[in-house]
Write a structure and sequence with these properties.
Elements (H helix, E strand, L loop, with lengths): L1 H22 L1 H44 L3 H13 L5 H11 L6 H14 L4 H15 L5 H12 L6 H14 L3 H13 L5 H14 L3
Helix pairs in contact: 2-3, 3-4, 4-5, 5-6, 6-7, 7-8, 8-9, 9-10
Length: 214
């Protein structure tokens, strides 16, 4: 008796499953097709992404070779294209290459390229802060007080590991302008900052002892 009930229950369950598939045939086909398309799109994107990164790497390396062979114009053009591609690895490398080799003399153009890295590329927080600091460093001799502070504000108003570097840069900037009280304030901030770079902290203390009589 129990076996018969089990067989009947099993047949009933199978019949219900069969009915479900028959009644929902179109929906199941749509869902299956949708999932297949998602998988195809994902793997296609990964293939494109990997291929694009390889292309970008080759473009960067070719630009370096062009520079070494004396074709600076071609190298500059290629490096700018790499920057504007907005890749988190190769775009910063391309800008640093242009700066380190003094291939762009127009500070406004350099700042625009910096802004692409800072504003348009998704970067790790501290990498972005380092780029901001580098931008400020390159502008420290030509920009006004307000402009320099505007550049560095994202670092100064954070707990970044680059904060002590930014404060030291401002201290040196105001000292060079003979605004010693402002300079002293920034050097003092470094001394009380918990995560100050140890070398920066030592240099700040030396600065205060030597130049401010403390």
């Amino acid at each position: 008796m129990d076996e018969e009930i089990t067989i009947i229950d099993s047949k009933t369950r199978n019949e219900k499953i069969k009915i479900f598939f028959v009644e929902n045939k179109k929906l199941l086909i749509y869902i299956s097709t949708f999932l297949i398309l998602i998988l195809i799109s994902f793997f296609s994107y990964q293939t494109y992404k990997n291929g694009h990164i390889e292309w970008l790497s080759n473009k960067y390396n070719t630009a370096v070779i062009d520079y070494e062979e004396g074709d600076k114009t071609k190298s500059i053009t290629s490096m700018k294209e790499v920057i504007k591609d907005k890749n988190s690895t190769y775009s910063p490398l391309a800008l640093y290459f242009l700066i380190d080799n003094n291939l762009i003399n127009d500070q406004d153009e350099i700042n625009k390229l910096f802004d692409i890295l800072i504003e348009e590329i998704r970067l790790e927080k501290e990498i972005k802060n380092l780029i901001i600091y580098k931008k400020a460093l390159l502008n420290s001799e030509s920009q006004s007080e307000n402009d320099l502070l505007k550049i560095l504000n994202p670092i100064i108003n954070s707990e970044s590991i680059w904060k002590s570097h930014a404060l030291y840069l401002l201290g040196e900037y105001f000292y060079s302008k003979n605004e010693k009280q402002k300079a002293k304030e920034f050097f003092n901030q470094i001394l009380v900052l918990e995560n100050s770079n140890s070398d920066i902290k030592i240099e700040s203390q030396k600065r205060i002892n030597r130049d401010f009589g403390e």
